[in-house]
Amino acid sequence: MINVKELIPIRFVGNAYDKHRLPVESLSDLIALAEAIKISAKEKYKEKHPERLRMPNNFKEKFRLFIDEIQEGSAVPIMKLQYEDELDNDFVTSHEEATNEIKNILRQAASSQETGIQTWLPEGAFKHLFKFGKGISKDCHIEINDNSNIIKVDFNTREYLFKQNLNKIQTRRSTLIFNGELFKVDFSTFTCCIELDDGTLKSFSFSENISELIRSSLRKDVRILVNGQVDKHNDLIGQGSILIIDHFDNNQFIGMNKAIDKLKELQDGWYWEGLGKALNPNVIKLILDFCQKCIDKGLPPPFIFPGIDKNEVYLEWPTLEGLITVSFFGESKEANLYGSIEEIDFNIQDDEKVDYVINNIAEKFIIH
Question: What band does 195 get if pLDDT is binned at 50, 70 and 90?
């Protein structure tokens, strides 16, 4: 059964929208808002289901955001969510929560509160939110009705959003980097501790929803954000090292060839408590060939690290929109692209599909 739920009415105000008209340029505003909602809702759904490292492969086929009417009063398109019964209720509430969060951010930006914006979207969602309102002229604006409170989005709102986000990025870039050994992890209190080279112990807390990432990561080689949240499994900087780094910081990259050499050195039992399989040389060659194609396309070399079974290997590119990951599933030659990008399943030996995937990744490194 197909269900429809109203998410947000958007009123375009100004001479350009009189007589129930909506110029074609305004479609870019609606697309930007829809993308911000979808990306934010996706992250909220993952928070509700920490056992999932990514969304189900077919989730995009089960829902869509759409507009099927423009109400009178200048031009008022109503954005709605269409979804099938197969999707659980958390999926719907995640979109509602994401929409409310976006309203809250726009409200704070519109009022230019001295305290700044207190709530932020995932990095990929903000890029789209900033484009919301870009299609309107300076003598026009957008209004969003939030429980009878009108939120006004105009040039000043977008300028304030941009400045606040720039301050946030600059703050994140000041992250410190520590090297040491993971000394203790306490899953009952969600805390971990590292011992630095000089013997100093430093403690950090982490969120409950990412505890499984810690359990599945290398105990002596983990990357942790400065706020304590685990970023990913293994950065291959070296056995016994732990990094607390900012998501935008690539300075610690050890070089693709060195990372590949480390993959070759892995033996059965390399993972904590005797888990972890040695990688098949054929798999490593396929990875190297894929990486070379990426570099030939102008992409920066990715972070490379192994999974704990099935000859899995992960490639990661941090971008301003978020993390892009390509995971390879060993000798099956099957791979998956996901993260802050269109999710794609592909075969690493399908040259046409590989080119399509690499072009999609390369697009994220072009500043629009």
Answer: low
CA nearest to 69, candidates 17, 129, 10: 10
Q: Pull the structure tokens for residue 281.
A: 């040389």
Which tokens belong to 366?
Answer: 């072009």
End-to-end CA distance of the chain: give it in Å, rounded.
39
Alpha helix segments (H runs only) across the chain: 27-48, 89-111, 123-131, 155-172, 211-215, 256-265, 281-296, 351-363
Q: Closest by alpha carbon to 43, among 356, 366, 338?
A: 338
Which of 138, 172, 206 corresponds to the end of one domain? 172
The Cα 40–Cα 126 span in angstroms is 9
pLDDT per position as a tens digit, 244-270? 332 222 233 345 676 777 778 778 876
Domain boundary among 125, 148, 172: 172
The pLDDT of residue 225 is above 50? no
Same domain, 49 and 129: yes
pLDDT digits 0-9 by tens, 139-161: 788 888 877 788 888 878 877 77
Task: Mark whether 67 and 107 lie in a shared domain.
Answer: yes
Two tokens, residue 291: 């990486």
- Angle at CA of residue 63, ends 341 and 339, nearest 5°: 15
- pTM score, whole prediction: 0.48
Print the domain residue range for 144. 2-172
